[in-house]
Design goal:
About 20% of the residues lie in helices and about 35% in strands. The protein has a single domain (about 10-145), classed as Rossmann fold (3-Layer(aba) Sandwich), CATH 3.40.50.2020. The chain has helices at about 10-30, 45-50, 105-115, and strands spanning about 5-10, 35-40, 60-65, 80, 90-100, 120-130, 140-145, 150, 170-174. The chain is globular. Helix 1 packs across helix 2. Strands 4-3-2-5-6-7 form a 6-stranded mixed beta sheet. Strands 1-9-8 form a 3-stranded antiparallel beta sheet. It is of the alpha/beta class. Magnesium ion binds near residues 42, 43, 97 and 98.
């Protein structure tokens, strides 16, 4: 089936918002080191841009999870495909995600990370689809709240395509 992508948030809008969130995080973590955890692959584009806008010391780690379910739905049962390299004990952890949809993946993941005894755990997401929430998740930093549409770009994919778009778009089927 042929498809095309319509722009929802331009590159400038996304970049400006990331700059604002970076400033806010820098204020909130003054005097601390923020330990950013990127959930691969989707969170990687946002995380690197965000890290560049944070002025307090930053350390980074990566993890990859897969949820059992279809490509556009998540079941909430999460399997760790790649675990973090570093322990979290005593660290001020900020999980960086591309999007919170049902909230199933994140609620599972956050609980698992809290078990590792970090000093604090917060969540930062570029996009949030509040209408789709099934499991309650506390989001500390949100780039944009968006309507219930399937979006791509800035790390988000449709069938592994479009992650590299520098803007957020909606997939339309022709
Ligand atoms: P949740 O557990 O339902 O919150 O699922 C979150 C994950 O589903 C995200 O990290 C994405 O990988 C994927 N996802 C949810 N909505 C979208 C979307 O609109 N476009 C691309 N991926 C999405
Ligand atoms: Mg994700």
């Amino acid at each position: 089936m042929a498809e095309h992508v319509e722009i929802m948030l331009t590159e400038d809008e996304v970049d400006n918002r990331i700059r604002e969130i970076g400033e806010q995080i820098s204020k909130d973590y003054a005097g601390k080191t923020v330990h950013l955890i990127c959930v691969l692959k989707g969170g990687s584009f946002f995380m690197t841009e965000l890290a560049k806008r944070i002025t307090v010391p930053v350390s980074l780690d990566f993890m990859s999870v897969s949820s059992y379910g279809g490509s556009t739905k998540s079941s909430g049962v999460v399997r760790i495909v790649k675990d973090l390299d570093e322990p979290l004990e005593g660290k001020d952890v900020l999980v960086v995600e591309d999007i919170v949809d049902s909230g199933r993946t994140l609620s599972y993941l956050l609980e698992m990370l809290r078990d590792r005894k970090p000093a604090s755990v917060k969540l930062c997401t570029l996009l949030d689809k509040p209408e789709r929430r099934v499991v309650d998740v506390n989001v500390d930093y949100t780039g944009f709240q968006i309507p219930d549409e399937f979006v791509v770009g800035y790390g988000l994919d449709y069938d592994q395509k479009y992650r590299n778009l520098p803007y957020i778009g909606v997939v339309k089927f022709d």
